[in-house]
Amino acid sequence: MHITITGGAGFLGVALARSLLASRSELSGLRLVDHVEPSEAAADVVGDERVDVLVGDLVDPDVVDEAIGPATDVVYHLASVVSAGAEADFDLGYRVNLLGTIGVLERARELGAGRDRPVRVVFASSLATHGSAAGGRTVDASAAQRPETSYGVQKACGELLVNDYHRRGFVEGWTLRLPTVVVRPGAPNRAASGFASGIIREPLTGVDTVCPVDPATVMAVISPRRVIDAFDRLLDLPGDALGADRTIPLPGLGMRVADAIAAVRAEGGDRPLGTVRFDPDPEIQRIVDSWPARIESAPAEALGMGGDESVAAIVRQHIDDELDR
Ligand SMILES: NC(=O)c1ccc[n+]([C@@H]2O[C@H](COP(=O)([O-])OP(=O)(O)OC[C@H]3O[C@@H](n4cnc5c(N)ncnc54)[C@H](O)[C@@H]3O)[C@@H](O)[C@H]2O)c1
Description:
This protein has 325 residues and is α/β, with parallel strands linked by helices. The chain folds into two domains: 2-181 and 222-249, Rossmann fold (3-Layer(aba) Sandwich), CATH 3.40.50.720; 194-220 and 253-292 and 309-320, UDP-galactose 4-epimerase, domain 1, CATH 3.90.25. It has helices at residues 11-23, 43-46, 61-67, 83-88, 90-112, 150-167, 194-204, 224-233, 257-267, 282-289, 298-302, 311-323, and strands at residues 2-6, 29-34, 51-55, 74-77, 120-126, 138-139, 172-178, 180-181, 209-211, 218-222, 247-249, 253-256, 276-278, 294-295. Helix 1 (11-23) crosses helix 8. The longest helix is centred in the N-terminal third of the chain and has 23 residues, at 90-112. The two termini are 29 Å apart. The relative contact order is 0.14. Bound molecules: nicotinamide-adenine-dinucleotide. Nicotinamide-adenine-dinucleotide (NAD) is lined by residues 7, 9-13, 34-36, 57-59, 78-82, 96, 100, 124, 126, 178, 180-181, 184, 189, 191, 193.
């Protein structure tokens, strides 16, 4: 099996690559494409003989052709300009998140023509596809998609494109719609939700941090292990395990900011803990308030893609996987 991961130097791209390399004996080639090099922390992944790394801009058709080579069976399309980045730079967001996604789908379509099973394309969408009508609420798979950020619009377009390319038989399309993934290790990216990891990650290593939203804010979150497990599970599913709507919203646990800070204190053990200072940022608060607070997903549960038990369990997972590793 040959797999390409776009955004392969990013947080989820590296974590997914590491997991596939460990669990998939049928994997013979794994190509990571990104416009930046993977960091030192990904040395174990990059060093695996099945892995090759391609550095380039996915919006360039030549890069896409090379990234998704003729032997490709599966593409995990994770490359993206994330939320605050796409809000700050309208043109860049549309170029990468919309045109880049079309380019990936077109390349997969081209390769799949005439094959028994089309190329499988797995797209990473976001809870940002909901708009403020869902803000602060519990939503399920039937909730309307009325995004109010450029990133959310771009991701919603991606979901619809995956549905249509699948319906036409051009690709075998799958979308996982992700809640905010917590805890993100390493340096923060430009996601508006970045603080949700920061208020756990930084204090646990003795670093003080700033939270831009109110302590009562509730966000729908999921742990990295749950997300990677869901991405991995798709490889074993037949294409018809899902109907015409190819989006599986992953369950999102409602994490109250104040509870996350308390969970760090409770789970931190003997570590000297950093502090969290509140410094409100109305723009970040607006974006986060337009996202659901909890996500329930019957389609995910039916496919064995469960959510997390508690905020404390997510904090412990981070300690086990990143700090005590
Ligand atoms: N992490 C989350 O909380 C979360 C939540 C919802 C959705 N998602 C989605 O999941 C996917 C992965 O997220 P992540 O947290 O790993 O993000 P990330 O920022 O760590 O990784 C995205 C990668 O895409 C790369 N990239 C951006 N533009 C590119 C281009 N033009 N060409 C090639 N590569 C490019 C970046 O360099 C980066 O390494 C993204 O599509 C994101 O929108 C993530």
